[in-house]
Design goal:
With 228 residues, the protein is an all-alpha fold. The protein contains 12 helices and no strands. α1 crosses α12 and α3 packs across α4.
Length: 228
């Protein structure tokens, strides 16, 4: 009679604190996300909000340069509303959908002045009432702009957390809710700023650089069929 196959030890739960600690060391070698750089240059929740709106479907390098050009002309809701729309379009070009984003910026600025006395709200509930603001942008304003607890989930955070096996979700929205349930609150604010450069430079969507990964030992590699 054949011997039974050896029993497999149960999968070890991801040590997220060790992962965050290792990523904090690793990201020193990589450029931070564009919105974080904008905030570091001139801390202001409005700049964070405007930069987030520009960043959708746009590379970080383009976002940062466009945001700096815009803020050199106007860096408040009232000042942006005083600009002709073509001037805004020229300032933010070549961000993706720059004409649509110029119109959205003006509408958001008008709303901020009408309902919030020109101030960017600091709660998800209020931020989500602004045109063009989804959960990713709202959470980024809360965390980066106000240094308050929130979990910003973009494509990098969604992909990487599922690749680790830390969550099993189909959408960024579901990933956010799953992380709110399991991610220690002390890691919420910094999580996006760690995973974005990690995803851009190491844990790439296709053929991730696992041989160079600072947390490879922790990763379940869910869905990874080829890596370097």
């Amino acid at each position: 009679m054949a011997a039974p196959p050896p029993r497999r030890s149960p999968k070890r739960a991801l040590d997220i604190t060790a992962v965050v600690r290792a990523l904090k060391r690793a990201v020193r070698a990589w450029a931070p996300p564009a919105v974080a750089r904008v905030q570091a240059a001139a801390p202001d929740p409005f700049r964070v909000l405007a930069s987030c709106l520009l960043s959708l479907r746009t590379k970080d390098a383009v976002t940062e340069v466009a945001a700096r050009r815009l803020f050199a002309l106007a860096d408040s809701p009232a000042a942006i509303l005083a600009l002709p729309r073509p001037a805004i379009e020229r300032a933010i070009y070549p961000v993706g959908f720059y004409r649509v984003k110029a119109r959205t910026l003006q509408e958001v600025c008008r709303d901020l002045l009408a309902r919030f006395a020109g101030q960017v709200p600091d709660t998800l509930e209020d931020l989500l009432t602004l045109k063009g603001v989804g959960r990713k942008t709202a959470n980024l304003v809360v965390t980066v702009g106000y240094n308050k607890a929130g979990i910003c989930v973009d494509t990098h955070v969604h992909r990487i957390c599922n690749r680790w096996g830390y969550v099993r979700t189909k959408t960024p929205e579901a990933t956010e809710q799953a992380l709110r349930a399991i991610l220690p609150r002390k890691h919420w604010i910094v999580f996006n700023d760690l995973l974005v450069p990690f995803g851009q430079n190491c844990c790439k969507p296709i053929s991730p650089l696992c041989s160079r990964c600072p947390i490879e030992v922790h990763c379940a590699k869910v869905g990874v069929t080829h890596h370097r």
